Amino acid sequence: MQIHTLTLGAYQTNTYIVSRDGRCVIIDPGYEADTIAFFLQKQGLTADAIFLTHGHFDHVGAVKALVSKLGCPVYIHEAELSLPKLFTAGAIPYTHTYGEGDRIEKAGISFRVLHTPGHTPGSVCLMAEDVCFSGDTLFCGSCGRTDLPGGDWATIRRSLTRLAQAEDDLTVYPGHGEATTLAAEKRYNPYLQ
Q1: Which end of the chain is least crowded, N or C, by CB within 10 Å?
Q2: What is the pLDDT of residue 168?
Q3: Residues 6, 30, 111, 19: what is their CA dihedral angle, to the nearest 10 degrees?
Q4: Which residues, 6+ apart, have CB-to-CB distance to 103 below 8 Å?
């Protein structure tokens, strides 16, 4: 499994291209659909799906344009569909919903969905092999904000407590900022204490 990080847009959102054997999954394409499509073309990758960790505009903004270019399915947690359109840049284009415990095989990789609400009601982390794509639930040294509609501090604390119970050797790829490890976050992140 190869992981490419494209940090794009005004909010420096991490879009992840997770690939194996010429096929890939795109996680959180928030900005610059043309840049993402060009990257796939240059790498010789075919997109099997787009996975969304949550519905905020900086994570979904490029979905519509990418779908028109690539024709792949889009997955999101159903609870995100109730977010105010102001925060999602309009209706979120999706084809499938996923939820807690779902396993989805795309690009020859098995992804497991962990529902981690708090930043938004339908925030998810996506687990694949020894990797966690944490969206805006967990960051290096911090966690997602809860002051926007649908956010809830007590709920994200429960989600973070749950993440802290996962295996230490997980590499964490967050929605913004640098990658980290769960072991480091358990040791140094005050929100996982």
Answers
A1: C
A2: 86
A3: -30
A4: 110, 111, 112, 113
Task: Give the percent of the chain with pLDDT over 90.
Answer: 97
What is the Cα–Cα distance from 124 to 114, expressed in whole angstroms? Answer: 5
What is the H or E stretch that residue 18 is in?
strand 13-20
CATH topology of domain 2-192: Metallo-beta-lactamase; Chain A (3.60.15)
In whole angstroms, how large is the CA radius of gyration of the chain?
Answer: 15
DSSP-based three-state secondary structure for 102: coil
Nearby residues of 41 by Cβ (< 8 Å), 6 or more positions away? none
* DSSP structural state of residue 176: B
pLDDT band at 163 (very low <50, low <70, confident <90, very high): very high
Three-class DSSP category at 2: strand
Q: Are strands 109-115 and 103-106 parallel, antiparallel or unpaired?
A: antiparallel
* The two structure tokens encoding residue 68: 């028109």
Q: Angle at CA 123, nearest 5°, toward 119 and 126? A: 130
pLDDT in tens, 87-132: 998 999 999 999 999 999 999 999 999 999 999 999 999 999 999 9
Q: How do the domains of the chain map onto residue ranges?
A: 2-192
Q: What is the mean pLDDT of residues 52-68?
A: 97
> If residue 37 lies in a helix (H) or strand (E), which one and from where to where?
helix 33-43
